[in-house]
Amino acid sequence: MPWFVKLEQGVVDRAGFDAHLHAHLAWIGQLERLGHQPSTGYWRECKGLNGAGAGGMLLFEARDRAEAEAILAGDPLIQAGCVSWVLHEWQVVAGALRRESPLTCGPEPKF
pLDDT value at position 27? Predict the structure, then answer.
């Protein structure tokens, strides 16, 4: 399955953000149980902000963009209007998450 990345920026105050954080983390657990391989976190330079000015990302698998958008529609932070966000399909070219793809030009280089 393709990888997708949601980049987000907090748009509410800390109290507004924190009110939905537990539900957001429970939702991430649900994505994991459903096999979407989520990894999420915040930007370290924004640690402690939680809310307006804070930001982070979610990496996950989905069959296609339509499914990725449907998955994100269930995010409690998005539902509550706590974050602005953008979604990208991510083509892994090298590294631990790389899989065979049409963009693969040949065998892995030998070092």
Answer: 98
